[in-house]
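STRUCTURE REQUEST FORM
Protein name: Ion-translocating oxidoreductase complex subunit D
Source organism: Peptostreptococcus russellii
Requested output: structure tokens
Priority: standard
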Amino acid sequence: MDKKLIVSSSPHIRSKEDTSYIMKQVLIALLPATLAGLYYFRVRGLVTILACVIGAVGSEWLYCKITKKKSTINDLSAVVTGLLLAFNVPAGLPVWMCVLGAVFSIVVVKMIFGGIGCNFLNPALAGRAFLLASFPVAMTTWVAPSVTEVVTTATPLSFMKLAGAEGMGTAAGAVEKLHGANITIVDMFIGNIGGTVGETCSVLLIIGGIYLVYKGIISYIMPVTYIGLVFVLTLLLGGFNGEFALYQTFAGGLLLGGIFMLTDYTTSPMTKKGQIIYAAIAAVIATCIRLYGGYPEGVSYSILFANCLVPLIDKYVHNRVFGEVRK
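Status: completed
Returned output:
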């Protein structure tokens, strides 16, 4: 059988890196935070992670089977999506909710649009948003790190939002509320706080991000712009209260979202200038929701909204072509 060889114009770039290699590196980067989630939330954390990962991989395999397409589970992108979804939900979320969120992330957000590389929203964050809209009580019932028993608690962001509701609507009032709850910056840095499975241990998320930058999987531009701008904005809007800005930086999913989901190849701009604009827009939205919205966390919605603007950013923000001459 004759085969037609089609060669595009030069230059040709060869690379040994494929999707599975990239996803393996992301999984390695997520491993420290995964171990921390298992340490703090034990069986509840393990069940949540397994339910999300199995739900994601299983739904992608079943979709390919039903549509008679070649199975794509070997590229490990479904595993990464499932793990990131688990990182974004409370430990102990009912198994069926975890599976439902994983199915929505994979089938509705990813596969229906053509599979990996074709989705316009981050699948894991879209799955989280779907679960939060569908099951708000379950998705905001946080479990404190506990070895022997289930103890519900509030997250640091919830305490800061509660301070505003009680008439302590200043940065100093929010910090005072956290001090009253015996929540310190150190606790937030090492993960000894209530929250989702993967967002609590800041230091391990940072280590994972450094690993991805070192391996060349992601650029530092988007995480630094996003996280740094949120810090600066909360510092300015919080009356130059540095402790309040630090609490806002290490609380919630800011580090998790900024390092592992804002940087998703498919849903982020192609140029450096576009990436800065994209991350800055997301940072402003996250800060506004956190400080002035009715919901204490704004990371997921800020990134999803910024995802929708990526085609527009890529259309108008592009690098100058080499040899181009202005008319």
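Reviewer notes: The chain has a mean pLDDT of 88. The CA atoms of residues 61 and 177 lie 47 Å apart.
Form closed.
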